[in-house]
Structure formats: C-alpha cells, structure tokens
C-alpha cells in the first residue's frame, strides 16, 4: 500500500531535529520524489483562447457575409475584410493570452512558503521544495506543507477540519522517542498537508509530499489567487451587452434606410454588420483585465501582492487604513533601552543587534550581575525566549567554538521575534548567554505567547530537580499574575502601593515610546509537572521591567502624510500599551491633538452605539486583542467607510477577512491570515499599503481613460453612419473602411492608455465613493459630447468635400482620415479629465506615442499606397483636404479647452 511504502525508516529521526537535511540530500530527494505539489488545475489552452476570438456572433455573421460577397465578385474586398478580422482576432488573442500568463505568474508568486531546518539553519523555502526527511518548524497560524510526524511539540494543536470535517482542534504529541519508524497511522503524532496549526509550536519530520499526502487524494486544494471577477468587470460585461443591443439597433436602422434609398441590399447588410463589429466595444473586457493584471504587476514591484483581483478596485475607494504598529509602522528592530529591577532603574547603551553596550545607573557604568534581581530579570528575558542566535557557518571552526558566541567582533545569525532577540542581546551585553542557561535549566514545557494573553511562559527544571516557571509579557498582565516581588530586600509581598509605583515606572517608559515587557517567575512547590498542571501563570514573583525602543519607519511618516492629502484616515491598532502607542502615533502624525485613544478594555465596556459615536475621532486603538480588531472593522464599515485592515497572527484572520481590503504581512504573517487577505505586504511596510492605494487609483483612472476613449470613438463611428443616412447622403464610409478604422484606433492606443503613468494629483484627491459607477463625475457627458463631435466633424469633412469637389471617393477618404485623426487626437485628451489637451503632458507615455504613430502609418499607408488604394477605394488627399481634415479634427479639442477654461473660471 502506497502510504505504508511512503513511510520513512529513519534510525533516529530525533537526531536530525537540529541538523535537518543538507542541500545536496534535499536536491537528490527532490529528484526522486518530485515537487511537493498537488495535481495542477487545468490551464486554458492558447488554442482555445484563439478559437474564442472567432465565436463572437457578430464576427461570425461578418465572416459569412464576407464570404458570400466574395462569391458575388468582390473578392479582394472579401479577402481584406477576412484579413482584418483575423488581425483583430490575433490582437484579441495576444491580449487575452498575456493576461492569462500574467495571472498565472502572479498565482505562482502567491504560493506558500514553509520553514524547515536545512544545513543546521532555519530557512524559509517554497513549500513545493519540501522533501521527505525535511524537518518542518511549525507554529500557530502555519498551514502545514506536507504530511509529517511530530518530533517535538509544545501545546501543538491542529485544525484538521479540512480532512476530517471536525472543527475542534486536535492536540498533537511527539512520536515516542523509542520508535525508530515514522508511522503515518499514528494520527496523534502526524500532521497533514493543508491543515492549520491553531496553537503551540513544534518540529516534525516530513514523510510524504505532493500527491502521496492525505491531501493528495483531494483535488483542487491548492490555495491560490482567486479568479474572481471584479465588480467593474461584472458591470462592464453588463454594459457591453447593453451597448451591443443599442449598436445593433442603429446598424439595423442604417441598413434599412440604405435599402429604402435604393442601395443594394447586400452592400447595406455588409455596411451594417461592419459597423456593428466596429462599434461594439468587444475588446473592452480584455483591456480592463489586462490593465488590472499589469497594475497588479506594478504593485508587486512596489511589494504589494494582490491575492484577489477585486481588491485592486476597492483600494482606490479606501477611506481608512487600520494598521498594526509593530513592524508595519515601526522598524521592528528592537533594542532594550531601560531596565527596572530590584528597585534600580538602569539605562542600556548600544544599538540594534550588536552585543556591545553597557549598563548605566545614574549615568555611571555598573555591573548588572552584582544585583540578583537585575541578573534574574536578564536571565528570564533570555531564557523565556525562542529567538535563535548562531555563528555563521564560516566561523564555526574549532577555535570559533571555543570562543563565546557573543565575542564582540562576531557577526551573528539571528532569527526569531524581534522583541525576544532584543532581550537575548540585552542579556548578552551582561555576559549571560542562552547556552549557559541551557546548561543550568532544561526546558520541559512552554505556554507560547499569544496576542490575547499577551504573555509567554516556560517551565524548566534545574539539576537539583527543582521546577521553575519563567514568564514574560505585557506588564499589566504580568502584575495581575503576581503576588510577590523580588525587591532589593529580597522577596516580599506585592502590595497595592508597590503595584502603583511599578505602573508609574511602566507608564514613564511607555511615554518615551518604549515597548515594555514585564518579567516574573515562580518555583513550583509540587516538584513535579505535567502539561495538565493548572495555573502555572499565577502567584508569580514580579522581577522587573524592560523598556524596548522600536523606532518608527522613516517612510511611514511620509506615507501617513500622503494618506492625509488623499483623504484617507490612518489609524493605529496595536496590542501595545496606550502610552507607547500614542507616543509613536504622535511621532508619525497619526495621532493629532483632539484625537481619541481607545483601549481594548474601554471598548469592552462600550455599547455598539457608543463605539460608533466615538470611532470617527479615534486614531489609536491600544492593548487590543484580535477580537477588537474585528469589532473595529465592523463599526467603521457601518459608518460607511471602506476599510483596509492589516493583520499577521492567526487570530487576526477574521478581521482581515471582514475588511474591505484585508492586508496581511508577507514576512511575519501566518499562512491563515495570508489566505484570508486580499493583499500581502511583502515587506510588512505601511508605506506599501499607501503605494498600493496609489496604484489602485491609477489603475481605475486608466480604465476610465480608455473606456472614455473607446466609447466616444465608437459612438463617433456609429453617428457618422447614422446621421449620414438620416441626411440622405451617400454612404460616408465603406464597410472595409469602417473595419480598418476600428483596427487602427481601437487596439494599440487603447491598451497604451491603460499604461498611462499616475497623474501628479492622484493622491491629492478624495477617495472614490464606493457607490460611484465608472461613468460618475461627468464621464458619460464627456463620452457623449465627444462622440457627437467626432461624428459631426467626420460628416463635416465628408459634406464639405462633396459640396466643393463633388467626388464621393475623395469625400469618403477625407471622412475616413478625419474619423481616425479625431480619435488619435482624442486619445491624448483622455489622459486627463480635469486638464485640456494643451495642459496635459503629452510625452510621458511612450507606448501611447508609439501606438499613435503606428496607427498613423497604417492609415496613411491605406490612403497613399496604390495597392491599398484599390482595395480600400481611397484616393490621395491634397493640401486643401488636409487643411479641412486637421481643422475639423482640432475643432473639438480647441472648443472643449475653451469651454473648460470658461467652466473653471466660473
Ligand atoms: P501590533 O503588531 O498589533 O502593533 P504588538 O506586536 O505591539 O502589536 P502584541 O504582539 O500583541 O502587540 O504584543 C502586546 C504586548 O505583549 C506587548 O506590548 C508586549 O508587552 C507583550 N509582548 C509582545 N511580544 C511578546 C513576547 N514575545 N513575549 C512576551 N510578551 C510579549
């Protein structure tokens, strides 16, 4: 049986716990076992995309009638029309194929990573590179990358509902060490691909990957970007149908009128259908999709990974960005600056992760190890800690091993939670190392940190068999768990007065923008411990406080400013202390005078109505738990805001999911939160959210630009023919000419408009209303008025040449050229809705200029190259006609800029 075969026979899996596989072994195994992926979803084949280009009803009718007209003698025309249709289809194919490829590339980027031990180092690798024998390092929030046997665990709980349907998390315990064989049927010790760790942490050895896993039996399980259509795409599809019906009606009228006037039935049919093919903006959905996809790529370059396409649109409407503090608004590079223990207040010098630094009392250097309370505080900080500090491989020589790992010249490899790293470094400055502590105490259990409890404990045993609990966490939580204090006079009762003075010292540190950690311990009286021993985090002895600096990110200050100009309110949401949060929010300009700060405890006492009343003035939410985050999102949404909310921990997922734009952290975020989010910040940076909002606005604006362009142009084409018929004129344009105009103007220039760079004032405007349609704010008026103008200009040239020269072919060529020129000029006008063509920077979009030049060449070729003159029934234009064409083509832009000026002056 395959599962049995896939079990691994390791003589001693535990021996691999800290070493893991080497790269060479992993590479070899990857070759034998294949990548750790489930069977891929079917991709759309390029052939299918190409075929779909010809399935449009209008295109089919056009092709059939062209073939018939070919048999009736118009062979050259028929071949040209078919050629145009094929070129059109190829352009459509290229657009859609590129879109499909871009989306695929983005999906592979969203593929999950996993933490493993390789070459004795903790590394994060793409989950598909996991091989049997890899040691997975797992913790709350992780989605497990392969089937594995647990070798080490503390409080490890897994949600296996995906496999079992059972929503209660299952506890996992390590494989009995006596067992040499990893047994996949030992469910208590197995974790399975795709399931989620809901609590605790651990290490597990992989025994099955890819299709050999339990999950391998379940199809389409891969968590990917969803192929959701955006609301705009849905609305446009609807609009497309509406426009199509309108166009068909007009085309029918044009054909019937022509026939009534005595034109040949078949010719008029062809004209009507060509007009329909030209006028129906069938390329619109593809261009919308490609500009969304290209925008998503641009966002990626700015470190924002979009997981759900609709978020791109919503970003432009964001009116509030709720952001975590630590790591997103701050650098998350912490350093212990102040220590309070045994009645002493010490300052700690040194920067970042450098172990050089000293301890000062009243500005004088002092040895922290001389005072028991201070030494113990540093020890608890370093030992109740999961950060890992190692020498780089190159320095692991024999001599290097003898030297202390904290020798001052060494560059250290550091991994783990920055708060914990800072505590380890502070202890190292005093000469206390984790390896020394490991010699004294043996860790027997851990109660991991979580953002609800806001503290962490470890249980450990010394050589005398005594069992201790070491706890660190938010001071308010720690003080509540303490009954005694380690003072300069020894261990005494912790009375209310002392509690108040500790709180005062804590507040003092917090006001200086320090993140404060409280430290405590106790000896377990019983002398034995099992994971069922209750309330170890109670009756503790308070030891001290440590204040950590975490400077605000420089780019966050600028990003906050940008938000304010853009009418977006930045809000800080943090688990940290109210005073720390306020101090940092003030530095970042998130908190201004008159704003309110609300804590989780205060929120708990408020009714929903009270919360709704105060929320508009709150810029900082402090000491909140994930459940408060959800409450905040709901309240803000009820108040009509479009809310972006960040999150990292597993418990943040509901709030992130509920937000209009759920944002997760790429570096520190858990898989669960990433999956719930619509956007991942690859650099965990607040400024990236603002950059994404900016891109979101640019994308939406560009979509408006080419919708404006395409619809105005198509309306112009329809009106030329329609009005021409109503005015009882000869047909202004032949079917083949209409199709050529459509090919020349609709394709490249429209796509190039989608690449237009951001307008200068894009982040100076208020957010778009979420109920606004794509045509809001006067776009429909612009489209209709310009459509009418294009039609009238074309007819103006047609009628003038007819009147003065009385040559239908010349008049048609003039109209043909005018229709193209008006559109190629209009494409530049579409770059801005507020400025006229003389104020718009025309040269900042090179693809657009190239597209226009290309279109010009195509139209001039048809008018001046003799072979094409025969096919397209054109004649060369003289100077007089050109003056007429340019005059009529420029009339629209000149008039609208004059009218625009007049309007703006009012
Ligand atoms: P955010 O990232 O949402 O801005 P935060 O990271 O500051 O918030 P939490 O991680 O929930 O918030 O931390 C809340 C409090 O818990 C901190 O103020 C600190 O006192 C304490 N704390 C943080 N990390 C640890 C840890 N690893 N061990 C023990 N206590 C911690």
TrEMBL record:
Its EC number is 3.6.3.8. Residues 7-74 form the Cation-transporting P-type ATPase N-terminal domain. GO terms for cellular component: plasma membrane. It comes from the Bacteria. One of its GO terms (molecular function) is ATP binding. The chain crosses the membrane at residues 49-72, 78-97, 242-260, 272-296, 709-731, 779-804, 848-870, 882-900. It is an enzyme of class 3 (hydrolase). The keyword Cell inner membrane does not apply. It is a multi-pass membrane protein. It is found in: Cell membrane. This is Calcium-transporting ATPase. It comes from Ruminiclostridium hungatei. The gene is yloB.
